[in-house]
Amino acid sequence: MSTATITVHQRSTGLPGAIASEWTKLWTVRSSWLNLIAGLGLTGLLGIQFGFSTAYENSHRPQGDLPGQSAVGGVGVSVVLILQVVVAAFAMLPVTSEYSSGSIRSTVQWTPVRRDVVLAKAAVLTPVLFLYGLMVGLLAAVSGGLAMGHWADWDAATLAVDVLSIAAYLTLTGLFTAGIAFLIRSTAGTLTAAFLLLMMIPLMLGQSSIRALVWFAALLPGGAGQNFLSGSTDPLSPTLSLVVLVLWAVGGLWAGSKVLKKRDV
Fold it and tell me: Fewer CB atoms near the end CB (10 Å): N or C, the chain?
């Protein structure tokens, strides 16, 4: 009498397989598409609003005060400072949705090296967020420029710099948000943290007359982003502000990786 032995081999997908899986998951959930559609729709509306506002203000200046044209890329910057939380929500959903549904357990089973889970999500989000940022910046600039009419400055070099800066900013803040999503795990909690760090706290502290608070605001991701996009040199130069943004993005992903490695899912 012979005995048949069946051996089951458990195979890890590795980082390349994890990236392929994350790419598929990102585009097969309805929330990703809804966010993109809503984000771009809101971008167009805000661009038109800022464009008309600029045209109205320029047309109703006191007699003798003749303003010049306004760069259309500036409309994109103004829109992004409002819309950035929507893009942050897009970045966090691949993480928080898995925690809410419990599918994070399957994810870490197929990718036992938990660091690869974070790296795979970051690898997928980086080009997508950059393209999202390009579309947001360009759509806001075009819609705002058309609404401004003859007040619009369509200089191609300035527009390219503004749009690329917007894309870089949204990519870095999106990666930061994805990183802290592994720490917080809930959609509401992550979105609240992103709202505070990207918008509310930098806005409040940046207007303070206390210099230390202004510096603190500039070192937050939202404050660094405002300096970077506006080209302001006070208190940090755009280059240093970009470095701060990179550090926040890397730090968020690193912290998320450490927590995922130690915490039971």
Answer: N
DSSP 197: I
The β-bridge relationship of strands 152-153 and 70-71 is: parallel
- 3-state SS, 44-55, equals HHHHHHHHHHHH
Contact (Cβ atoms closer than 8 angstroms) between residue 185 and residue 192 = no
Cα–Cα distance for residue pair 153/76, rounded to 1 Å: 13
Say whether pTM exceeds 0.85: yes
Give CA–CA dist 257/1, Å, rounded.
52
Q: Which of 203, 178, 195 is closest to 91 using CA atoms?
A: 178
Eight-state DSSP code of residue 196: I
For the ranges 7-21, 86-100, 138-152, 179-193, the lowest mean pLDDT is seen at: 7-21
**Pair 42, 86: CB distance under 8 Å:** yes
What pairs with residue 152 in β-bridges? 70
Give yes or no for residue 214 having a pLDDT over 70.
Answer: yes
Q: Which residues of 21-48 are buried (b: 16+ CB within 10 A; e: fewer)?
A: bbbebbeeeeebeebbeebbebbbebbb
Residues 6+ apart with CB under 8 A from 127: none
> Given CA atoms 174, 86, 199, 163 in this order, what sign does their dihedral have?
positive
Instruction: Round to whole Å and give the CA distance between 49 and 148.
Output: 10
Residue-wise pLDDT for 62-121, tens only, equals: 776 777 888 999 999 999 999 999 999 999 999 999 999 989 998 888 888 889 999 999
- On the question of a cis peptide bond just before residue 127, with omega within 30 degrees of 0, the verdict is no
Question: What are the DSSP calls for 51-69, one per residue?
Answer: HHHHHHHHHTPPTT-----
